[in-house]
Amino acid sequence: GLLQLWKKKRCILTEEGLLLIPPKQQPPPQQQQQQPPLPAEPAAKIKELHFSNMKTVDCVERKGKYVYFTVVMAEGKEIDFRCAQEQGWNAAITLQMVQYKNRQAILAVRSTRQKQQHLGQA
Questions:
Q1: What average pLDDT does range 8-32 have in this prediction?
Q2: Which residues of 52-81 are buried (b: 16+ CB within 10 A; e: fewer)?
Q3: Domain coordinates of the chain in residue numbers?
């Protein structure tokens, strides 16, 4: 087997995607705050995997106490993840991605219908 060094990241699942934050860095401030505190490290260290750029979440294997899964991005890049089986992160990410894509599809249909209605009235 291949040895792989796993980088520890704190993952935050949002409606738009997945934020990968180095373990020592504070998460981004909530949007409700008007004056956000300055983060301990530059925000450039925070990596966002946006659902619009995600293709699939593939469960690779369950081994011991871990689930290994891969997020496949639209451009073909693959990012490997590992989490404890009971956390079910692969399922949570997949569900959130499906909800995001469904919202985008609904917005696209509404936009098309509005354009058709405007053309019909002209």
A1: 79
A2: eebeebeeeeeeeeebbbebeeeeeeeeeb
A3: 10-27+37-121
